[in-house]
């Protein structure tokens, strides 16, 4: 039991190239990092290798922090999860100010609670029929809640992500792009600056645009954008969050170069 508790409190969720959970692992030195809901570092994986990357300028003597949990949750939910699993209350500025909580729970309460329950019920489908059922449920809820829930509502956003995943697995590329495009605004709101989740989402949408011969749009999504305006693109973010040698960055660069080559011949 003590060993189980040590694993629960100190393990890291190992994710694949698209930030999907594939397992857990113990990395003793990284377990020394403390938590912040607005961290200055992120953890990404290259296979089973853990990489710690800074996502903003860090001052001399400043503590390195990572987020132990999903920061997309509203403050009250983050605090509950941290207390339940790690036995502490977070006092970071994001929690003290309850920043963006209003946007995260915008819309009609009974509507987002219904969507929240539906999202929580989804288990990873294992067959085409399962994915079809998931997509039908998503389509029904997204349609019935049109005008009642903005896409910035975090449960609506999760539903859009779920619908996008279902369409990708069912090879409904055009519909997948529709749902994916709707997520980019909320992702920019909740993951400003450099964040691997936003980079991966931009990359997924860019790949969908590329697969449908929307080369100018795909290039705009994937290429490096203006830092001054904080409209970070997939490549620009991923250079920071993953590093130029990461396999995912290499894939992104290949798609970007293919887009540029095709556009030069048109």
From TrEMBL:
<dbReference type="InterPro" id="IPR001214">
    <property type="entry name" value="SET_dom"/>
</dbReference>
<dbReference type="InterPro" id="IPR046341">
    <property type="entry name" value="SET_dom_sf"/>
</dbReference>
<dbReference type="GO" id="GO:0140999">
    <property type="term" value="F:histone H3K4 trimethyltransferase activity"/>
</dbReference>
<feature type="domain" description="SET">
    <location>
        <begin position="1"/>
        <end position="69"/>
    </location>
</feature>
<protein>
    <recommendedName>
        <fullName>[histone H3]-lysine(4) N-trimethyltransferase</fullName>
        <ecNumber>2.1.1.354</ecNumber>
    </recommendedName>
</protein>
<dbReference type="InterPro" id="IPR050869">
    <property type="entry name" value="H3K4_H4K5_MeTrfase"/>
</dbReference>
<dbReference type="Pfam" id="PF00856">
    <property type="entry name" value="SET"/>
</dbReference>
<keyword id="KW-0949">S-adenosyl-L-methionine</keyword>
<dbReference type="GO" id="GO:0005634">
    <property type="term" value="C:nucleus"/>
</dbReference>
<keyword id="KW-0489">Methyltransferase</keyword>
<keyword id="KW-0808">Transferase</keyword>
<dbReference type="GO" id="GO:0032259">
    <property type="term" value="P:methylation"/>
</dbReference>
<dbReference type="InterPro" id="IPR011990">
    <property type="entry name" value="TPR-like_helical_dom_sf"/>
</dbReference>
């Amino acid at each position: 039991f003590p060993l189980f508790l040590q694993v629960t409190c100190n393990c890291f969720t190992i994710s694949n190239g698209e930030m999907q959970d594939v397992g857990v692992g113990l990395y003793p030195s990284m377990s020394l990092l403390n938590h912040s809901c607005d961290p200055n570092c992120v953890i990404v994986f290259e296979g089973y290798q853990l990489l710690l990357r800074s996502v903003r300028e860090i001052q001399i003597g400043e503590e390195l922090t990572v987020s132990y949990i999903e920061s997309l949750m509203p403050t009250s939910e983050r605090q509950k999860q941290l207390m339940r699993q790690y036995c502490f209350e977070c006092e970071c500025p994001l929690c003290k100010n309850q920043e963006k909580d209003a946007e995260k729970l915008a819309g009609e309460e009974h509507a987002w609670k219904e969507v929240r329950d539906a999202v929580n019920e989804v288990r990873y489908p294992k067959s085409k029929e399962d994915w079809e059922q998931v997509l039908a449920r998503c389509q029904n809820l997204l349609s019935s809640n049109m005008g009642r829930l903005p896409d910035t509502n975090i449960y609506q956003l999760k539903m859009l992500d779920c619908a996008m995943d279902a369409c990708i697995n069912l090879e409904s590329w055009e519909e997948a792009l529709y749902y994916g495009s709707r997520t980019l605004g909320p992702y920019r709101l909740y993951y400003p600056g450099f964040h691997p989740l936003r980079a991966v989402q931009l990359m997924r949408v860019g790949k969908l645009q590329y697969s449908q011969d929307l080369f100018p749009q795909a290039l705009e999504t994937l290429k490096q954008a203006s830092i001054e305006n904080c409209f970070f693109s997939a490549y620009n973010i991923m250079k920071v969050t993953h590093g130029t040698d990461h396999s995912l960055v290499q894939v992104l660069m290949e798609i970007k170069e293919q887009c540029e080559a095709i556009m030069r011949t048109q």
